Structure formats: C-alpha cells, structure tokens
Amino acid sequence: MSANSLLVPVSGSSTERQTVKYAVRRVLDGTGEVRIRFVYVHPPDRTQETSPEEVVADAGLSPEQATRLLDRVAVWAREDAGEDISRLTVETAQIGLTEYLFSPEDLATRLVEETEEHDIPHILLDPEYNPGIGSPLLRPLEYELTRFRECTVEEAPAQLRTRRSPLVIRSTPVQVGSLFLVSFLFYQLLAGQLYWFDLVTGVISATIVAVGLSRVTFHRNPSLRSLSQIGRLILYIPYLLVQIVKSNILIAAVILHPRLPIEPRLTRVRTTVWGGIPVMTLANSITLTPGTLSVRVDGRSLTVHTLVPSAREDLFDGGLERAVRYVFYGRESMKIASPRERGDTKILQPIPGKSDGSDENESPGETGEADETEVSDDREASGDTETSDDREASGDTETSDEQGGEQT
Amino acid sequence: MIETLRVGAIIVLVVLGLFFTFVSATGVLRLPDVYSRAHTASQADTLGAGFALAAVALALGFGTTSYKTVLLLFFIFITNPTAAHAISRAADEQGIEPWTTDDDRTDRDLYEASEVETDGGVATNGGEQP
Amino acid sequence: MITPFEAVLFAFVLATAITTALLRDVLSVIVVFAAYSLGMALFYAFLLAPDVAMTEAAIGAGVTTLLLLLTLVQTVREDDNRTFEQLNIPALVVFGALLVVLVATLTEFPEAVGSADAPAWSNPAVTQYYIENAFADTGVMNAVTAVLAGYRGFDTFGEAVVVFAAGVSILIVLGREVFTSE
Amino acid sequence: MPVAFITGDLVTDVFLGAAALFMLLAIAMFYRAIKGPTTQDRVLAVNVLGTNTVVILALLGAGLGEPSLLDIALVYALLNFLMAVAISKFTVERGGVL
Fold it and tell me: D11 touching C, CB under 8 A?
C-alpha cells in the first residue's frame, strides 16, 4: 500500500514522538511529493460544568496550547525527514473548536470528512491517542473508524513505555511544605507541650504524612487566595451556626410534635458553586442545617432530602449557597440569583394534591428518576436542560475524592 | 459572682446539649425511614454535642486542655454531616426509596427492598463466590 | 456503691453484648459490635484507665470493624430473612454451665484478689521488692518490662503465642483469594 | 493529675449526671440499632451512639478531672467517622472497604 499522505491525529500522548517518526518513515517510503497532516481535536467545551481553573485539568488543551503542540510535532516531523525534507509537506490543523464532538462516532465522522476534504486516504493512529472524547462505555474510536470504507486506518507500532508508578510523587515543594507545616502544628497541638521528644516524633510523623499524602490533599498550590478564603470562612462559621441553631429549634418542634408533621421529599438543586472543596462545604452545610440532607453530589448537582416544606423553601432560596459563594469567590458572586429564580430546582417526588402524583408504580431502584415535577410551572422554559441521566454520567469521583481528603 | 455565672452557664449548656440529644434520639426512634433519621442524627445530635462540649470547655478553663475540646467540636462538625451523607448515599445507591407522606410501607418492606437491591453480603454477587 | 452512670453503662454494655450474640445478619453484628466497644471504652475511661480505653477505641471502632468487613468480603452469606438467631438449646446449656462455674469460681476466690487488702496494696514491701531488685534479678532497665518478661515470663510467652496465632490466622483469611486465584 | 478545675461538687455532679442521662439516651438509640430495618439504619444509630460516646467521654473527663479522656474522645471521633464511611462503602460496593 503506497501511502504518500497521512492524517495523524495528535493528543500529546507519551508515544507521540515515536508515532511521528513512524509516520515520516512511512510516507517517505513512497515516491514524489508526500505530505502529513497533523490534527488536534478539541473535546467538547466543558466550561458549563467546571470552573475555568479546572478546565485545563482534563478537558483538553486551550487553542494556544494546541498550537504549541502542533508546532512541536511539525518540528519533529521535519527533523525526522532529514535530507528528504524537500519532498515532505507538513500541515497542521485544529478541529472541534466550533463543533460539538461528543462521541467517538462524531469524532470518526469528522476525521473521515477531514480526509476527504484534503484528499488524504490514510489515517495513522497513535496507540495512546486519547482525544478526551467518549467514555469507557462507548465503542472506541478505532472501531468507529473501521466502519468507514473511504479511508484506511493504521496504528503506529509505537513501543508503549511502561506507565509511571503511582508511588512517584508529582506534588510540588509548596504542597509538601504546607502539608508538613499543618500536620506538624496539629501534632504539637495534640501533644500539648513543647518537649524534645514530641518535636522529634512530630517531625518524623509530619514528614511521612507530607510525603505520602500531599498528592491526595492538594490539587493545586495553596496560595494567598486560599488565605483570604480562610478569612471569609471564619466569617461564614458564625452565620452557619446561627442558621443551625435557628432551624434546629424548628426541627425540634416538628420532631417532638405528637403528630409528627413531616413531609419528606427528595429534591434536586443545581448549584452555582464549582469544584471539590466548595461543593463539599455547601453539601456539608446543607446537611448540618436541619431539615435538609444532601444525599448525592454529582458535580454541581445536589440531590437533597428535605424533611419539612419550610426547610425546602429555605434551600431553594439559596441563602447557604450564596454564603458559600461569598467564601470561595468573593463578594461579587453573591449577586447570582437564587436557585429558585434560576429555575435550578426540582422536586423529585410528587407532592400529593399539587400536581400529578399518579405514577406510583415505579421500581424502587429508580429513586426519583421517573417523575420529576417542576417546582414552578412557569419556569419550565428557563433553560434547565438537565436530564436525570447526567446524574449517572457526570463523575461520581468528585464525592469520593472529597471523602478521601476528609480522612487524611 | 463570676464563678456563679460560670457554673450557671455550664448548667445551661449541659441542659441544652441534653435537650438536643434527646430530640435526636426521639427523631432516630420516631421518624419513618433512614433518610429522615439521618436528618436528626446529623443535625440535632451535632448541636447537642456542640453544647455539651462547650460546657466542658468552660469547665476546664481556657488554656491547658480546653483547646482539645474545640478541636473535638471542629471534628464533629465536619465528620458528622459527612458520615450522614455517606450513609444516606449508601442507602440511595442500594435503591431504598425515601418515605413520603402517603407511603404505607412497613419496616419489613423497607428491609426487603434494601436486601433485594444490595449485593452487600447477600450471595447474589456471583464473582465473590470461591 | 454503684453510681447511676455505672448502672446505665452496665445495662448498655449488656444490651449490646446480647444483641451481638442474637442478631443473625453478620453486617449488623459488626455494626452492633462497634456499639459494644463504645460501651467498653467508656467503662475503661470511667475506671480511669485511659490507655486501655484508647486501645479499645482504636481497636474496637477502627481496626476490628475494618478487619471483620475485610473478612466478610471473602465469605458468602446465606440469604435469610430472620432478624434474630434461633435459640440453640445445647449451646444454651453449655453456656449456663460455664456461667455457673465462672460465678462459683469467682465467689470462691480468696478475698485478697482485687480487694484493697491485697498484699500488693496492703504490704508495700512487695512493690518495693520489685522496684529495688528488678534490675539485679533480671538485668532489665524498665521495671514493668522486667515483671512482664521476667517474673511472669511464661505467662507473657503464652500471650505472645496467642497474638501470633491470631495474626497468622488473619493473614491466612485475608490472603486466601491471593493464593487460590493465581 | 490535677486539673484547672473550678471545683465545687455541684459541677462534678452535673457532669456525671449528664453523662448518665446521655448514656440513657444511648440505650434508647440502641433500640434502632437492634431494630434496623436496614443496615444503614444500624450504621446511623451506631454513628449517633459514637457521637454520644465522644460527648460522654468529654463529660467524664471534666467530671472526673481527667483531661486525658479528651484524647480518647478525639481518637473516637475520628474512628467513628471512619467506621461509618467504611460500612457505608461496604454496603454499596461489596469489598470496597478502604
């Protein structure tokens, strides 16, 4: 098979270098003018779900980063071509910036379109190619590509490097240092007295903790911003305590009431806080405030069990949410409307007599999946595109991460 | 004078702590399902513990050891809601449906619902068998 | 004289112990057993033995629960809807006999054991003997270690054997899958 | 070890009496641990019992003048949480204890 042109999707994987080398050798085997087209595919924009700082973590590269990656790959290719460089044309392109490529199937279709557009009949896949599109549940890109007959697909025979052992610590000195300081201070606090034995054992224990757990504890370097957050957190605590006492009295009255006037309902609130620690703070505050209990946390979406209607109203008014936003994002963010005004609230179980409570025979396994009653009917058009499916789709990992951090 | 005030404050705090723990116990006994019980378990109990520990801190005096009470309070305020969340989440994942007002399921039904859905120990999980 | 606190604590520990024995579901037993260890830790704390209470807290609530859960992972539980165990008459008879023997033995002990007039308390010379001669007799610097490993060495040896056997059994139980699945 | 105690038998009595009452409430809550009906109910009840135990330990520490009991309470507060989370994880995902 004489391939004198190749389309190579790149993603910055660990075998990228070998793939480029193979691609260049492959095309230069042919005669005449040859060309390679490197494309970077942008995964779908996930800024809807995460805060700007966190996007970089797993949702692909920014256009500038992608340009840099493509430039690097092009330089490699020219380097490998050596004296044959006059015959080789290297092209680069970025796709997916304006389209919404959600599944591997979308991606495969788009890649095949690209081959047709530029008349390149071969696709060379990096064995470690990871476009950041699709999930383990979906069929992989290779499978989707083989369904198209228009072009041939080949996988570069790159040698897989052994994966880095998980014991290698990727944390920065600042993280290790701050964790060391915190755990050392905690140790001395527990010891209660400054005595050389405690100091020495404290240093040993704090070192073990800092080296072993700094990767688990921090996602990014602690900064001065965290300090101002701690300051606002101290302001937040009295507010939370007042809320707790106030609603505790209310709940005490309900529980000690002879008729037990409760009306428990599962509700769902899409909050406007992002990221692990803020959501954990909000979920824990919601649980601490009587009458509301956070049952599930999936990204920004909290499933909250409410005991009495008044607690439900308070939750939808979003006082706590506003306070948590104040703690983590500053005063400006307090202006965001309450969940009720945004239409981000749902009662997952029907309220008898208020709307349709007819669908009784749902299976016990699908809590709140079957009938979702909008809180206020006039808000149906307010752009809440959330379906109950994303309760499973958006990662459960966030919650377990938080708990892992909790135990340290 | 100040001593009397302090003793008075201690007694008031202990009584408040007892009251809220009593509410929590009542709730755990009276409420219909695990979710609503988790409410009182995490909330009334946390507040009750808070008041009682405040009394202890007041009695031990400021300084030598009472900061440990504050530490304890801090832990309880963080771990209690997290534990309640973990428990209710486990209940949700097992498919136990929250009780609602027009619900006439009995304890027996709730128990069986949890047993059917779970693989937590029931021999339905084939992969675990030796 | 028994204080109200002790009385309630007794009732609590008894209730938890009996429930632990009676419940059928193993997972529930583990949970209830954690409650039992709560009561025992409180007992030790009340008797002013903070170190024992600390150990009970760490072992009872933490390690035992985890070990039992890890063990439960390796087992298969029969699906049974009964909440409580049925009473096993022969076992009950054996238990009753054991109880009678223990109570009889306990009451027949000489007054000295556990009483304030025990030689160790009433006769300071005994304590003094250990303090003065422990190093000369055994060559061990720490008097407590000398008593444990020297004067009552056989006893300690027996304990060590028991603890070692327990450790080995735990390893066998937890490692079973590793051995069989390879 | 002597403590910074405000002395006076009244306070000691208050603390020990409160500890006894907390213990009574613990017995009441233990009913839920026996009754269930689900494992989560039991874990919940024992978790509340654990919080109660922490409080009782602190009260005893103040009542008996033994501040070292606060250390036990600290250990217990953390391990109690660990236990609740471990059993919850176990019930969801058999074997996912740690």
Answer: no
Question: The dihedral of CA A175, A178, A184, A187: what is its sign?
Answer: negative
Nearest to A266 by CA among B97, B117, B31, B91: B97
Q: pLDDT by residue (tens digit) across A190-239?
A: 877 777 888 888 899 998 988 888 777 766 666 666 677 778 788 888 88
pLDDT in tens, B30-89: 887 888 888 887 788 888 888 888 888 888 876 667 788 888 888 888 888 888 888 888
Chains C and A, touching by 3 or more CB pairs within 8 angstroms: no
Tell whether C82 and C142 lie within a shared domain.
Answer: no
Q: How far is B106 from chain A (nearest CA, A)?
A: 14
Give Cα A25 distance to the centre of its chain: 39
Hey, which residues does A5 pair with through a beta bridge? Answer: A35
Q: What is the model's pTM?
A: 0.65
Two tokens, residue C180: 């069989």
Is there a contact between D30 and C83 if contact means CB atoms under 8 Å apart? no
Residues 33-72 of B with CB under 8 A from A: 33, 35-36, 38-40, 42-44, 46-47, 64-65, 67-68, 71
The domain segmentation of chain B, as residue ranges, is 2-125
Could you say which of B39, B46, B84 has the minimum Cβ distance to residue A307? B39
| Residue B2 distance to chain A (closest CA, Å) | 26
State whether A213 and A230 are in the same domain: no
CATH of the domain at A18: 3.40.50.620
Q: How far apart are CA C69 and CA D91, in angstroms?
A: 10
- ipTM of this complex: 0.70
